[in-house]
Write a structure and sequence with these properties.
Elements lengths: L2 H24 L4 E6 L12 E4 L3 H10 L12 E5 L2 H6 L1 H7 L8 E10 L2 E11 L2 H5 L3 H37 L3 E5 L5 E4 L1 H7 L3 H4 L4 H5 L15 H6 L4 E9 L5 E12 L5 E10 L1 H36 L7 H32 L5 E2 L1 E3 L1 H15 L4 E5 L7 E3 L1 H17 L6 E8 L3 E7 L21 H5 L8 H11 L4 E6 L3 E9 L9 E2 L1
Parallel strand pairs: 13-15
Antiparallel strand pairs: 1-2, 1-5, 3-4, 4-5, 6-7, 6-10, 8-9, 9-10, 11-19, 12-14, 15-16, 16-18, 17-18
Helix pairs in contact: 1-6, 11-12, 12-16, 13-14, 14-16
Bound molecules: adenosine-5'-diphosphate.
Length: about 525
């Protein structure tokens, strides 16, 4: 709630208090409670009231005691009856006002139904000494006057209150909205700038209020050209056009650009002139990225599936020809190629399934204490057999502490990183695997002297289907899933994975795993 709203709400509450107090006094009462009619115009079931001269608990006692008694209504606006001495004994605030010398005073309640031509407003219950009506000299006419005044005052106070509530509701929507909202005056100067807008642009409301909104958002069209003032969504709304879900690019304070969907509307004066423009802005950068990812997915996967299928088909057709005469060596070479391509297909399908399992959150692991050295030695051995031309050096300390890990999954990570080191090293690969034991974790690094990765692409390559430009340009095949899977596995172990790389010089991929004695992991992690 803003300060001015709070002040207005306090003011209308004070106004109610004064009204209820003076009405209670006019009816000869000492204390009282005004129960506001609720939305169903039923004061009986309402829980909103204003107290005068009573504590909360006393008011609850008092109202409770009257539940079974006759209530005033449109047909019988005034009900007066005596209160039980047991109740009076409990109403300390009222007794204190009577200044009696210990004896319980005789009290009555006087309940007045308050309404105006617009409908019931509530019931005023007063507590007063028996016979005080006579002292107050209230005639039928006097009572009517009290009621009319009270009703008029109450109606005004209620209106003020409902206005404040409405403002609070709107302010909450404005503050909590996930969409950015800004409003401008007729000269396009910013009036309001909600927190979602602050998050999106990096500007704070107090920094932008009063500034020309174009200068703050620097809107561009989808092609990246600066939007002319005639293209301003708010000006278009001012001129009576419908602006809904228009796609624009805006520039944040730090220069970062966002694709947003913009809706503009305006408020007009009674003469029909636009006075305030409102812009709602939804960040759709992520949606656009996802769309791009989907189309990348389709092109990568179809390419990755088609290539091995074409090769297998080519060899199979040659081998199947009736006139094919192949010596055993040539036959073996072709069959070997068919086998390799089938393996590639198999791996791709496996990786796709793995990636969709990760996305569905279904990565199940069996974590036990694990000795990394023999695991790395075996992986290196397998690679040497498969790629005899590559040199693989291991740099493992003599006593490597065990880590907590799922053996099979970590084998997959090693395999993926070693395969990449070979794949992205043109010519002969020189690979080094290093292990270092730190205070809490063990770090495994796989270095190559291959093509490296451009700096700006290094952060992205762990995402699905992301491939660095230089590897695509070199026509090295891949689906961009291996590192995504590696990251999911390592992170599910509570570890980290990262890359350090220099273009044309080589890359080092490292991951960390928690040391056995430091890990607090359960045995099975989902
Ligand atoms: P894939 O190799 O199938 O494309 P990965 O997820 O394993 O998928 O790798 C993602 C991208 O990261 C690769 O396409 C490549 O651009 C880059 N990359 C991975 N490892 C290396 C490496 N050792 N050297 C250079 N680039 C690499």
């Amino acid at each position: 709630m803003s300060l001015s709203q709070q002040r207005r709400s306090e003011e209308s509450y004070d106004q109610m208090l004064i009204l209820v107090g003076s009405s209670v006094r006019l009816l000869g009462g000492l204390a009282g409670v005004f129960v506001l009619a609720n939305a169903a115009f039923d004061p009986q079931s309402s829980s909103e009231y204003t107290l005068y001269g009573l504590h909360e608990e006393e008011a609850a006692l008092f109202l409770n005691s009257m539940r079974e008694r006759p209530q005033p209504g449109p047909a019988r606006p005034l009900v007066v009856d005596a209160l039980a001495p047991t109740l009076v004994a409990q109403l300390e605030s009222v007794r204190a006002l009577l200044d009696e010398d210990g004896d319980l005073p005789a009290l009555e309640r006087c309940s007045l139904f308050v309404s105006d031509p617009a409908g019931p407003l509530g019931i005023l219950h007063c507590l007063r000494p028996v016979g005080s009506e006579v002292q107050a000299g209230l005639t039928e006419e006097g009572r009517h006057l009290v009621m009319t005044q009270l009703a008029a005052g109450l109606r005004a106070a209620l209106r003020a209150q409902s206005l404040v509530r409405e403002q609070q509701r709107l302010a909450a929507i404005f503050q909590q909205s996930a969409e950015g909202i800004l409003s401008v005056d007729s000269a396009l100067r910013i009036l309001d700038f909600n927190p979602a807008m602050e998050r999106l642009t990096g500007w704070r409301e107090h920094e932008v209020v009063g500034r020309f909104y174009f200068e703050v958002l620097r809107p561009k069209d989808r092609q990246g050209h600066d939007l002319g003032l005639q293209g301003s969504p708010i000006l278009q709304a001012f001129s009576g056009q419908h602006v809904r879900d228009r796609e624009l690019v805006i520039v944040a304070r730090d220069g970062q650009q966002f694709t947003v969907s913009v809706t503009a509307s305006c408020i007009t004066s009674p003469h029909g002139e636009p006075t305030i423009g409102i812009l709602t802005i939804r960040d759709i950068t992520r949606e656009r990225e996802q769309e791009e990812q989907r189309s990348t997915f389709i092109s990568v996967i179809s390419h990755e599936l088609q290539t091995p299928i074409a090769i297998i088909k080519g060899y199979a057709s040659t081998l199947a020809r009736s006139d094919a005469v192949l010596d055993p060596q040539a036959l073996r070479t072709r069959l070997k190629a068919v086998e390799e391509e089938a393996d590639r297909l198999n791996k791709l399908v496996g990786n796709l399934l793995y990636a969709s399992r990760i996305q569905a959150g279904g990565l199940q692991m069996d974590i036990t204490p694990l000795d990394l050295a023999p695991l790395i030695e075996r992986a290196a051995e397998r690679l040497r057999v498969k790629h005899p031309e590559a040199t693989i050096t291991l740099d493992l300390p003599a006593h490597l502490p065990p880590v907590m890990a799922d053996r099979e999954r970590i084998e997959e990570v090693l395999q993926n990183l070693l395969d990449n080191a070979i794949k992205y090293s043109p010519g002969k690969a020189h690979i080094t695997v290093t292990c270092r034991a730190m205070a809490d974790e063990v770090i495994v690094s796989i270095s190559d002297q291959g093509m490296g990765i451009p700096l700006r692409e290094q952060a992205g390559i762990f995402d699905r289907f992301q491939r660095a430009g230089n590897s695509k340009a070199s026509a090295i095949q891949g689906a961009g899933l291996g590192l995504y899977i590696c990251r999911a596995i390592v992170e599910a172990h509570g570890g980290r994975i990262w890359v350090e790389s220099t273009l044309h010089s080589g890359s080092t991929f490292s991951f960390s795993l928690l040391r056995e004695e430091k890990a607090q992991l359960p045995m099975v992690v989902f």
